[in-house]
Every structure is written in C-alpha cells, then in structure tokens.
Write a structure and sequence with these properties.
Elements (H helix, E strand, L loop, with lengths): L1 H22 L29 E10 L8 E2 L3 E8 L1 E6 L2 E8 L3 E4 L5 E4 L6 E10 L6 E2 L6
Length: about 150
C-alpha cells in the first residue's frame, strides 16, 4: 500500500511539473517572419511609460556624408546598425562614438544627439522609438557639442 501511495504521489508530482508544457500551443498556419535587425548593446534596458504609447519602427539608409542633425525624441530610441558604420554624439558624451553593424544603441528620451555617416559607404539601421501617444517622432535641437 505504501508503494502505491508513493507511486501515486510521484505520478501526481510529475503531471503537475509537465502540465505547463502540455498547455503550450505550437504555431499553426502559414506565418512568415522577417528578422529586421539583431544588435547587442552594452547597457541594460528598461522601458517605463506614464501612459499610452506609440511604437515607431523605421528603416534608415544614411548615404555619405549624411547627418541627422541635432535632435531629441520624446521617448526612448533603440537602434540597431545593420550595415556600415555610423558615428553618434550625445549631449552627455561629446566624443564621437562609432557604431558598427550588429551593434545596438539606446538613447534615453529627451537626450540631444546627432548621428552621422562619416564613411565613404552607405550605412543602414533599424530604429524603434517608444513615444508618448500623439507626440512627434523627433524635434530639432541646438548643437550640444562642437
């Protein structure tokens, strides 16, 4: 009888442990996914908003010698460099910092910055902006660095 009780308890424990796996559903139907960009950054990321948000995703092509001009965003910007090299300057860090394909950039809301393509080749990026609803994607800003 003790063996039966132990076996029943073990079976119950096993069924509880695997129940969440059994409840998962596999993909169904014809779904195509296109990975737009994958990049690795060197800082942790946390997104908090005070209310409704709008998410913008843009693919950027910067022909040389393109410059975004100094500007800000009302929400956080996450950008992955997908080709070439861009140079970033922020009001917090005036020294130009190059970013290569495969690297990610995070720019907090309200930080003035400029992105340039100083190379002789095109540069590509995918940018995602998490903004307060009904706010413009960007606002021009005065130059924060020489």
């Amino acid at each position: 009888m003790k063996r039966l009780a132990a076996a029943s308890a073990a079976a119950l424990s096993l069924s509880i442990a695997v129940a969440p796996l059994a409840a998962a559903t596999p993909p169904d139907g014809d779904i195509e996914r296109t990975e737009l960009a994958t990049g690795t950054g060197d800082q942790p990321v946390q997104i908090q908003t005070a209310g409704p948000t709008t998410l913008y995703v843009q693919e950027l092509l910067l022909h040389p010698p393109a410059s975004s001009g100094w500007h800000t965003h009302p929400g956080v910007e996450h950008t992955v460099i997908t080709g070439g090299t861009v140079t970033l300057q922020t009001a917090d860090q005036c020294a130009p910092t190059p970013y290569l394909a495969g690297q990610a950039i995070v720019i907090p809301a309200g930080v003035p910055h400029v992105v340039r393509n100083d190379s002789p080749h095109d540069a590509n990026a995918v940018a995602t902006y998490t903004l307060p609803a009904d706010q413009p994607v960007r606002a021009d800003a005065p130059a924060a660095c020489p």
